[in-house]
Amino acid sequence: MSPERARELLAAVAGVTVGDGLAPVVAQVTPAEWAAAARFAKDTLGCTFFSFVTAIDWNADGLEVVAWVDNLDTRLAVQLRTKLGPGATVCPSLVPVYRGANWMEREAFDMFGLQFTGHPDPRRILLEDDWVGHPLLKSYAVDTPHPPYR
Amino acid sequence: MKPPVPQVPIPLWRDVKDLQEWETHHQRRPDSGDKHSSLFERVTEGIHSFPGGFAVTTVADGFFNWARKSSVWPVSFGLACCAIEMMATFASRFDVERLGMVPWASPRHSDLMIVSGTVTIKMAPMLKRIYEQMPDPKWAVSMGSCANSGGPFRHGYHVVKGVDRIIPVDVYVPGCPPPPESLLNGLLLLQDQISHFRRTGQRPEPSPKVD
Questions:
Q1: Number of residue pairs across A and B with CB atoms under 8 Å?
Q2: Which among A55, A83, B51, B63 is placed 20 to 30 Å from B113, CA to CA?
Q3: Which residues of B touch A130 (CB under 8 A)?
Q4: Is A73 within 8 Å of A50 (Cβ atoms)?
């Protein structure tokens, strides 16, 4: 699977806008087609290696979820991105497609407060269970006190 | 022609926000750091106030302090990359065992906690518990910038801004990480502090020259 062929195939998928560049092939997906696009990348493009899922906080434009999957045999890298829109925190989970997304999505929930629908275990993973707030959001103040230790 | 150098006044202690925070939040060491039964305290104070008795108590103090500083056992407790330097200090090249320090794997038998690394808010309760499990008299060395003040993570969201907000610290070793020579110097300073502890009467104020 060459990157050029992957771009052609991805451009034909519903809800996907393919960006410029071949390494990685960037696919801008609508949130509704998020899991379907990941399934397409895994089954059709052969991207069986799940690298990461994380998020970007674009302040007023809301959160953008970014996932990166690889086809290690043909050295194809696909970056899936979806903009959730201002104020939205709900995103479909990739765990039914990629089992490795489990802890990554827990971390994204921990840091950005993203709610992944269909996630089997939506708890915090790095911070304590009683932590208030989501620290990687731009709205989180750096010097938020955490009594009694700060 | 060179432009005039702007004259910036030297910041005073009270002007530095981080130092103000340290003044407000750091834990102070309780009295002499040594607990005894009240009967024992009364007997020693009695001997101390008896004419000529101070000779007995000071000699006894000196003896006990010598014994204590000659067998300071640090609890094996490493938090981050500073622990690598701590291990190097414990190993054969720098060899703290010649100072009587044996890294011990149980807080119940240890006298010293070397806080080597970043203390996160999640780790802080465990660190405090280990410190409280150590028997008196006990000492703590804060090793590295992270344990001293939070270091490069001071303005992060998850790091305690200095381990002295959790436990009282006797010696601060600067560095990121401190080399084994630095830690060794800190341990020698701690031994010097221990030899100045006084059981009877008040503990003398630490002198900036020695301590």
A1: 22
A2: B63
A3: none
A4: no
The dihedral built from the CA positions of residue B12, B18, B24 and B29, taken in this order, carries a sign that is negative
Residue linked to tokens 């005894």 = B36
Q: Please report residues of A whose CB lies closer than 8 A to that of B165.
A: 149-150
Contact (CB<8Å) B155/A142: yes
ipTM for the predicted complex? 0.76
Residue B21: both structure tokens together: 């925070």
Q: Which residues contact A7 (CB under 8 A, 6 or more apart)?
A: A18, A22, A25
The pLDDT tens digits of the residues spanning A81-117 come to 999 989 889 999 999 999 999 999 999 999 999 999 9
Give residues 110 to 129 of A whose Cβ lies within 8 Å of B.
127-128
State both tokens at B63.
């003896």
The three-state DSSP-derived secondary structure of A17-51 is EECCCCCCEEEEECHHHHHHHHHHHHHCCCCCEEE
Q: How many Å apart are CA B59 and CA B55, to the nearest integer? A: 6
Query: Is the pLDDT score of A9 beyond 90?
Result: no
Spatial contact of A9 and A44, defined as CB atoms under 8 Å apart: yes
- Note the pTM of the prediction, 2 decimals: 0.80
Percentage of residues in chain A with pLDDT exceeding 90?
A: 53
